[in-house]
Amino acid sequence: MSCPRPPALTRRAFIVSAAAASAGAMLPPQPNARAAGRREFRLRAGQSRAQIAPEPYGDTAVWCYDGSLPGPEIRVRQGERLRIAVENALGEETTVHWHGVRVPNAMDGVPHLTQAPIAPGETFTYEFSAVDAGTFWYHPHQRSFEQVGRGLYGPLIVEEADPIQADRDVTWVLSDWRLTRSAEMRDDFGNRHDMMHNGRIGNTVTINGRVPDVFPVRKGERIRLRLINAANARIFGLDFGGHEPVVIAFDGQPVEPHVPAGGLVVLGSGMRADIVLDMTADAGSRISVTDRFYKDLEYRLVDLAYGNEPLRAATLDTPVALPPNPLPEPDLASAARHEITFNGGMMGAMVMQQMGGSMGESSSDGGMMGGMGSMMDMMHSGGIWFVNGVAAEGHVMEPMLTLARDRSHVIAMTNATAWHHPTHLHGHSFRVISRNGQPTRHREWQDTVLMAPRERVEIAFVADNPGHWMLHCHILEHQAAGMMGVFRVV
To answer: pLDDT tens digits for 46-60?
Structure first.
C-alpha cells in the first residue's frame, strides 16, 4: 500500500515572512440581503489566483467562489431559509452540493440526477431551510475530483439559537495541494494511479487556503474550533500537543462531549468536527499541532502561539453539550436491513480472497461478496472501484437500494478493499451503531463515516427525505472511478 509523502511545502521549506497568513484569521462572512424572511446570497464560481504558499513564492492559479480561497463563509441561524444564486464563470459545467445539509432532493446539486448542470455563463438558484444547526460546507458535484481539487469549496455554518459559551468561534477549512517547486498547481487531476490507490494526496497542507505558521491564542481562552476536511483524499489525525480537544459535534450533529481516542481528532475527506479547545499552556509558550494520521509521516501543521498576557487565570467551567437537532430516531427493532460491499482498487482481488471465507456469496440486496474470481471479472469490465459489484459511470444509474419512506433502515457496509473510504450519504444523517460487530460508544450522528480497510460498519437512520440520493466514497478520485451508487426513498 502506498502512503502519502509528508507535505513538502511546509513552513520550514520557506523563508519566514510576515506575508504568511495566520491560521487564526476568521473567514469573512458572505455579504447577504434579507428579503421576505429569507437570507439571500450570491456565489460566483470562477478562476482566480491565491497566495497558497508564503512569499517568496508567487501566487497559484485556482478555481474558487467570489475570488476567495476558501469561498465565503455563509453563516446563518438555525431555522432560517437560504436563497443562494450561483453564477458559473468557469469554462465548464458545475453544480453546488450542500454537504451534510438535509435539503430537498432538487436542491442537492448532483448533476443530471437532481438538476441539470449549470452551464458556463448561467446561474442556478438554490433554496432550502437550515433545519439543523452545525458545521457544513459547499462544493461542486460535477467533476469534483478537479473542481474541488482546484479550490471550489467553502464553509456553511448554521448557528444554534443559544450557542455554547466560548471566547472565539473559529473555522479551519483544511485542505492540501499538489504543487510544483514554483507553487504552480500540478495538472494531473484524475490520473489512474491516484484513482487506484488512495486518491490525490497533495504535498502542501493549508488552513483556510494558506500554509499556516501560527494561530495566536491566550492562556485561559476557550475556542470553539470548527474543522472541515475539504481535501480530495487526505485524512487528518490532529494532535493538539498536550491540549485536550473535546469533541462536541461530528458532521454538524451534536455528540456527547468527549476527548477522542488517543487525543487525535481524525477526519476523512468531507468530514467535520466541532471541538472545544481550552488554552491551558503557559503564557508566551508555543505548542505545535501535529498531523499524525499516516504512520511515520507526521508533520507540524501549525503552532498555537500564546500571547504574553493571559486572558484569564483559569479556563471556563461552563457546559459544552449542544442541543440535539430535529433528527428522527431509528427504531432498530423494526428496521429493514441492507448490505453494501465496497470492492476494487489496487490489491482489491487479494483483499476479497482474504475475506472470502467470512463473506457470503451475496447479500439480500445483491451485494457482490465473492472472492478473487468475481473481483477479476469486475476489473476486466473496465471499472476500478465497485459498490455491490457495479462501477458507477456518471451520476445517473439504477438505484442499488429502494428504501421505504419514513421507515427505519440499517445498512451494513463492508470495506473489502485495502484502502480507507470516507463514505458519504446525501440527504440524511445516520447513527453509526457498530464497527466490526462491536457497538460504538457514542452512537454518533454523521453523514460521512470513515471506514478502515476490511472494516464492517453498520449505520441506522429513518429514510424521511424522498428522492434519489447518492452514496459514495468522498475520496473524490474513488468516486470518479466508480465508488458511487444511488438509493431511492419512496
So the answer is: 999 999 998 899 999
Q: How far apart are CA 443 and CA 440, in angstroms?
A: 5
> CATH for 168-306?
2.60.40.420
DSSP string, 257-290: EEPPGGGEEEE-TT-EEEEEEE--SPTT-EEEEE
Give me Rg for the CA atoms of the chain. Answer: 22
Q: Long-range contacts for 110-114 (Cβ within 8 Å, ≥24 apart)?
A: 110/141, 110/395, 110/426, 110/470, 111/141, 111/142, 111/395, 112/394, 112/395, 112/396, 113/395, 113/396, 113/468, 113/470, 113/486, 114/467, 114/468
Residues with Cβ < 8 Å from 79, sequence gap 6 or more? 129, 130, 131, 161
Task: Return the closest-CA partner of residue 199 out of 346, 356, 411.
Answer: 346
Q: pLDDT averaged over the chain?
A: 88
Terminal CA-to-CA distance of the chain, rounded, Å?
41
> Exposed, middle or buried by CB within 10 Å (0-12, 13-18, 19+), for 15?
exposed
Integer angstrom CA distances of residue 105 from 69, 155, 428, 466: 28, 21, 11, 7
CA distance 411 to 374: 23
pLDDT band at 25 (very low <50, low <70, confident <90, very high): very low
Residue 37: CB atoms within 10 Å: 7
C-alpha–C-alpha distance, residues 405 and 357, integer Å: 35
**CB proximity list for 63: less than 8 A, separation 6 or greater:** 45, 46, 47, 48, 90, 147, 150, 151, 152
3-state secondary structure of 479: helix
H-run or E-run covering 349: helix 348-355
For residue 350, the 8-state DSSP code is H
pLDDT exceeds cutoff 60 at 364: no
Q: What is the pTM of this model?
A: 0.89
Which residue, among 63, 101, 86, has the nearest Cα to 425 in the 3D structure? 101
Q: Where in the chain is the domain with CATH 2.60.40.420?
A: 11-159, 168-306, 336-489
Biggest distance spanned by C-alpha atoms of the chain: 66
Of 57, 62, 68, 69, nearest to 17 by C-alpha is 57
CATH of domain 11-159: 2.60.40.420
* Confidence check: pLDDT of 309 > 70: yes
Element (H, E) at 138: strand 134-139
Neighbours of 57 (CB within 10 A): 22
Query: What topology does CATH give the domain 336-489?
Result: Immunoglobulin-like (2.60.40)
- Residue 195, SS3 per DSSP: helix
Beta strands 299-306 and 214-217: pairing type?
A: parallel
